[in-house]
Design brief:
By secondary structure, the chain is mostly beta strands. The chain contains one helix and eleven strands. Strands 2, 4, 5, 6, 9, 10 and 11 form a seven-stranded mixed β-sheet that branches. A four-stranded antiparallel β-sheet has the order 1-3-8-7, with no helix packed on it. The termini are far apart.
């Protein structure tokens, strides 16, 4: 099974940027689609972005389109979420995950979750 560990969260000012990393271990990482999700306390987890196993296709939720960028390097077993123009409503715990396809990822059908990293955007 794939093990995932996120890092890079912290406190950021409105309009600032942050880069989240997801380090993976396990031999099957390169054959999974990868996604990022976020969750605010008391609300359901929502899908943010997804990328195909070969990194040629990316998809974004409307709320982050044009501001966030997802990428991966299978040789390094690492994925990233680059975030710019951050808003207070982006404040959440961010989770990376792996799944079969980008379509199932957007439907929150995933195989493994990371532990999460908190991003707080101050106003």
């Amino acid at each position: 099974q794939v093990q995932l560990v996120e890092s890079g969260g912290g406190l950021v000012q409105t309009g600032g940027s942050a880069n989240l990393s997801c380090a993976a271990s396990g031999p099957t990482f390169s054959n999974y689609a990868m996604g990022w999700f976020r969750q605010v306390s008391g609300k359901e987890r929502e899908w943010v972005a997804a990328i195909g196993w070969n990194a040629e296709s990316t998809y974004y939720a409307d709320s982050v389109k044009g501001r966030f960028s997802i990428s991966r390097d299978n040789a390094k077993n690492t994925a990233w979420l680059q975030m710019t123009s951050l808003k207070p409503e982006d404040t959440a715990a961010y989770y990376c995950a792996v799944g079969l396809t980008t379509a199932t990822m957007a439907a929150k059908k995933v195989s493994s979750w990371g532990q999460g990293t908190q991003v707080t955007v101050s106003s």
